[in-house]
Write a structure and sequence with these properties.
4 copies of one chain form a homotetramer. Chain A is an alpha+beta fold and about 150 residues long. Chain A has 3 helices and 6 strands; from the N terminus they run H-H-E-E-H-E-E-E-E. Chain A has helices at about 1-20, 25-30, 60-80, and strands spanning about 30-35, 40-45, 80-95, 100-110, 115-125, 130-145. A 6-stranded antiparallel sheet of chain A has the order 1-2-4-5-6-3. The two termini of chain A are about 25 Å apart. Chains A and B meet through helix 2, helix 3 and strand 3 of A and helix 2, helix 3 and strand 3 of B.
Chain lengths: ~150, ~150, ~150, ~150
């Protein structure tokens, strides 16, 4: 039981250390708001730094947050021993990113030894209402975890 | 001939005005480095704001720049009358984004009345050498151009 | 009430007529096994005509059945007035297609005036057990329904 | 030099044996019309077995042929020692498959130890004129070649 607690603690530290080392996500003030085995939620507040020409969240930002949510969902099953890099992703934007917050929820569909397949749904929150904004599918490949800086 | 020149000037202004209104690209210091009918090149210097945990360009940023290059390639055929929004894109990252500059070259493959299909290649420049980093396919839908702010 | 029944009957006839006119699906002996508004299930028995070199369902067949399931899910909302054509799809194969039957379940995620976004899950049935085999995302565009042959 | 010829002969045999073992492609009368290192061309005659409801090539068939062309392009670099399975593919259909022959040309963009990324262009030939019909991107994973049946 205490072993499990130690493992979970190491995993959580490893995930947060990795997330906080992502300059792109830090510059946007993105937050890791939920982690469970095989799943991950990231939220992103609206700002000029994530906007497109009409004042909505940029499609490329929506893709980047979905990519990150799927990747960290995979990392919950891989870290602290291994981690993953994105091989490819595909995103359909089904509604404009009009709102004050993006919430991306990623989950693992298949965890293989070398490849992980994840998906994510992205919601945009406007006046407290969540609306489906985008869906993503993704392939990640597993690599040994680079040495921790902690 | 002078009519054509006027049209080109309006088109170029319209493209630049739209590009410069994209807060995401401005925050990254992305530049529109080439425009020809049906094609577009964007370059992006490396900075902490576009990095991932290993110090490379973030996969989501690579996707966002490819998405933008394909979209502005489409806009060269649509503006100033119409413009496009991203319906979907898919990107394969074929090499780590390790270098000082990303260059994304987008081109239109099919321009329909309602839909445009574009593709893009993304190169990473390291010590002056361009290396293929990612390939993208994309569907855009055409909307009337929102009123200019100029 | 009788008006509604007539409408549903016309819709069902329209869907079946279209499905049965797809030579590819007929040659494979694919069946439309469930239709509800915005959703569709197709099942496909294994045969040499849908196999690859190891005796599994061919990856291209898995994609074709997923594409069809997403398309007919959209058609439940469009026919008999309109119908749809595939603009693009993307499929991740997460397990080999090893079994005696493929079951593809498509559903509509967003139905717009000109574009519909669908997704599908494909399961392979082996000794009575369903196993997730593939996931798909897709964009369809809406066209007026060609005149019925009935 | 004679060693190289022997190797090429073994590779060609291995490719043809694998292609001819694909029941799906055989049922359609698909042909491997060109092979060079890292590239492959497949052609497919129109028939009821590859049609959709309007008498064009079925979108799922277009995807299956593109998938096969990308896969055999990869196999030219892998066989007879290894071979590949499709992890995922994404296809944009840019024009209806209206014509008498489909020609898919696949090529390898990146050949890694475990993953290969390929792309393909699909053309439809109508009255002797080739027209771009679809574009595809794909990820394949490398596996040891199953024992030859020859």
């Amino acid at each position: 039981m205490s072993h499990q607690a130690t493992l979970d603690h190491k995993l959580a530290l490893s995930l947060l250390e990795s997330f906080n080392a992502q300059g792109t996500l830090m510059a946007w003030d993105a937050r890791l708001t939920s982690i469970t085995p095989g799943a991950c939620e990231i939220s992103l507040p609206y700002s000029a730094s994530v906007s497109q020409q009409h004042g909505y969240f940029h499609g490329g930002v929506i893709g980047a947050i979905a990519d990150s949510a799927g990747g960290y969902a995979a990392n919950t099953l891989l870290m602290p021993v291994s981690e993953c890099l994105t091989a490819e992703y595909k995103i359909n934007i089904v509604a404009p990113g009009a709102g004050d917050t993006l919430i991306a929820r990623g989950k693992v569909l298949k965890a293989g030894k070398n490849l992980v397949v994840s998906s994510a749904e992205v919601f945009v929150v406007d006046k407290g209402q969540e609306k489906l904004c985008a869906i993503m599918q993704q392939t990640l490949f597993v690599i040994p975890k680079a040495e921790s800086r902690i």
